[in-house]
Amino acid sequence: MAFENLSEKLQNTFKKLRGKGVLSESDINDAMREVKLALLEADVNFKVVKEFVAAVKEKCMGAEALQSLTPGQQVIKIVNDELVGLMGGTGSKLTYSPSGFTVLLMVGLQGTGKTTTCGKLANYLKKNGKKPMLCACDIYRPAAIDQLEVVGKSVDVPVYTDRESRVAEDIALAAMKEAERKGYDVLIVDTAGRLQIDEELMEELVRVKKAVKPHEILLVVDALTGQDAVNAAEGFNDRLGIDGIIMTKMDGDSRGGAALSAKKVTGRPIKFMGVGEKFDALEPFHPERMASRILGMGDMLTLIEKAQEAYDEEKAAKLEKKLKKNEFTLEDFLDQMGEVQNMGGIGKMLEMLPGFNSSKVSDADIEKSEKEFRQMEAIICSMTLEERRNPSLLNASRRKRISAGCGQPVSKINSLIKKYEDAKKLMKQFNNPNFMKKNKKFKGLF
């Protein structure tokens, strides 16, 4: 999980400060030393760490922090504000052409997940009302065109290809004309990468840039490569003048140093982050939300947005009617489990909850929860339609038959029925008008 190690260390540091009614200069110095070590261990650029700690320390030494009734909380607020500023301040959105047709040029080194990210970005744009087309301009890597065609098919987006041409800028220009002619409003150009920055690669990208005049040049970098990713971003920016960064594999980077250094070093914002392998696993990068996650304060805004994306008004209305009539079935229970999966699974949801401590919930624990979901699905699918809709029919002999059908012990079936009964009570509570009036923040989540 992103920033797992850094988050754990910072939360432990601030836990010590919270317990003190008054903070001394020595307390601040000790805390800043731990913050500095935590950031360096997270592979944050040394100069960035030095400036960050100095800025935080200066503000913490101010009278407002030291004389506050809650000095520990005041220090956390200062660190939070500085983290937000370090990552860019506010989320940076894509810029679209006022004429209605936008060209996005995707660049990056080989192996960063650039081609897959093109598909993820196309999928994201479709969800946001755009009509994108992909263009294959990697004329060197074997099967690069085939890979982009597979990606395009997966997200149901057309791909412009020219297997005869060996001139990338000509392909991009032809694709732009074709996309405009067919009524597409965004062209995403996938370019060639190299194992390292070289003159030949940069010259080609400069020619493509000159030919299609992209509205945004987006650099795709691999978060797992740490400061190498930041160095690559600096190199591309110097030659091309990139407009933003897409950081892939953020879900697998427990350190997060690249994300914390990129904006400060390059002056260019992180616009998106890849958080999984699926084509819907691309999220806009929000510095304020990310800082909140790092400090263990959760990210309820993203959680609510994901809930709203998965929210089906018609299905919710039907469920509400069923709950009022006490007709919540195992089919409905399975459907609700599916909604959790659509929001990224239990692991992604936990990361966004305030107070979540990643050290207490390991990847193995999350995997166990996901496995239980799959087992419950197998059990429910092994029942007859009548049994799913009327679980009271599940006597001992029926449970044995279901056990044989799904390969799970009867104890698992008993556990499922218990969870179903608990969920039924909980869903009934959340659909109580009095409860919703008192807890408006939950509206849309259930």
Gyration radius from CA atoms, angstroms: 26 Å
How would you characterize the largest beta sheet?
Answer: 8 strands, mixed
Low-confidence segments, given as residue ranges, are 440-446
How far apart the termini lie comes to 26 Å
**Order of the strands making up the biggest sheet:** 3-2-4-1-5-6-7-8
Helix residue percentage: 55-70%
Number of helices: 21
What is the typical, i.e. mean, pLDDT?
81
Secondary-structure element string? HHHHHEHEHEHEHEHEHEEHHHHHHHHHH
Structural class: alpha/beta
Extended strand count: 8
Shape: flat
Q: What share of the residues does DSSP label as strand, in percent?
A: 5-15%
Describe the 3D structure:
- α2 (25-41) packs antiparallel against α3 (46-60).
- Mean pLDDT is 81; it is low at 440-446.
- This protein has 446 residues and is an alpha/beta fold.
- β5 (216-222), α10 and β6 form a beta-alpha-beta unit.
- An 8-stranded mixed beta sheet has the order 3-2-4-1-5-6-7-8, with helices on both faces.
- It has 21 helices and 8 strands.
- Helix content is 58%, strand content 9%.
Helices and strands in order:
Blueprint: H1 4-18, H2 25-41, H3 46-60, H4 63-66, H5 71-86, E1 102-107, H6 114-127, E2 132-137, H7 144-154, E3 159-160, H8 168-181, E4 186-191, H9 199-212, E5 216-222, H10 227-240, E6 244-248, H11 257-266, E7 270-274, E8 282-284, H12 287-294, H13 300-310, H14 313-324, H15 330-342, H16 345-351, H17 363-381, H18 385-389, H19 396-406, H20 410-430, H21 433-438
